[in-house]
Known about the structure:
CATH class of the largest domain: Alpha Beta
Structural class: alpha/beta
CATH superfamily of the largest domain: Glycogen Phosphorylase B
Number of helices: 15
Strand content: 15-25%
Shape: globular
Number of domains: 2
Radius of gyration: 22 Å
Strand order of the largest sheet: 3-2-1-4-5-6-7
CATH topology of the largest domain: Rossmann fold
Helix content: 25-40%
Number of strands: 13
Amino acid sequence: MKVLIITYYWPPAGGSGVQRWLKFVKYLRDFDIEPVIYTVQDPKYALIDETLKKEIPENIEILKQPIWEPNNLLTFFKSKQQKTSAGFLNPNPSFFEKQLQYIRANYFIPDARKYWVKPSVKFLSDYLNNNTVDVIITTGPPHSLHLIGMELNKRFPIKWISDFRDPWTDIDYFHQLPLTEKSKQKHKSLEERVLQQSDAVLVVGKTMKEKYDKFNNNIHVISNGFDGDIAKNQIVLDKKFSITHVGLMNADRNPKILWEALSELLKENTDLSNDLKIKLIGEVSEEVKINISNSKLEKMTQYISYIPHNKVMEYQRSTQVLLLAVNNVPAAKGIITGKIFEYLQAKRPILAIAPVDGDLAEIIKNTNSGKVVGFDEKNLLKIYIFDLYQKYKNGSLEIESKNIDKYKRKNLTRQLSEVIKSLK
């Protein structure tokens, strides 16, 4: 059985977007499914991780086509120091930056990769006329890739699965975009059309499934996960009381109550001043850095820019505490950050600041892997941090997590294979 997987992110792309389908592809052959990849030729990824190339299976067919990205033109007019990711929209843009944001939001719907749709449909139509494929899979974001799948599904009698690694109109930064009402409706209309036309839909969490159920009755929750062995006790832990966060930390994801709680705890406990180490791995917004500085935590904080995935795993396994900060946005309940699963793999206590009734909280509860504190529960947060610190001082800071094998990538790929084969 052969599947055509249409993905924008593929090695050497770094970051979280590439992980899901790279790992699925790694194991699909174990379930008698041969993957064919269609991706971008010579893309300009924001993050590069050359080490991921070695995880691509041997002799896999990879199709590539050039893409014209208007983002490259728009960012030419910006300061080189300015972050261009949607997650880092400037909260105080200049007049000119406002115009660029407006153009990007309202003229490139669903996103700036929309100009790859037509040439991709043409190229893949030629390919499908000469090659047998049983199922087409598109993964977003960028959600424009689903438009490629939708058009191919109209032209060919081939089943189509749309995979939503993140939601479309409920994505955490959607509310930040300067969208007109007409543009918002266009997004919602496209989202509904993709959902309705898909032969099957994949989502990463229960809340997203509940929202999409009214548009399609064949929706499957296949979460993200982790690859490799679960961390063992021989890992050498940090000597300091380290609290480590991995990934983007923008203004919406800024855990202000954590900085406040730590600042107050430092005043109440002088030993903590000597022991505390905060590690932030990945892009961090200026607002976060200002809050950290104002909380007198700057000397204890280490900012680490993007590093290869295998090195990130070393940091996760050696830290005393792993920090998860969910975006404080309207759709927060349904946010499941991909890093949660690698945090589970690391088997270190997880401290999450997130909705206590959200999808993420349910995973942490069911795996007994840590504690979730609400966005406004500063006193509870202080109590929990101090408890973690006391255990650290006593040499007993461990976690007895459970039920995490189901999040191994190979087990998740087995679930995916069952969905694929059910469409045949």
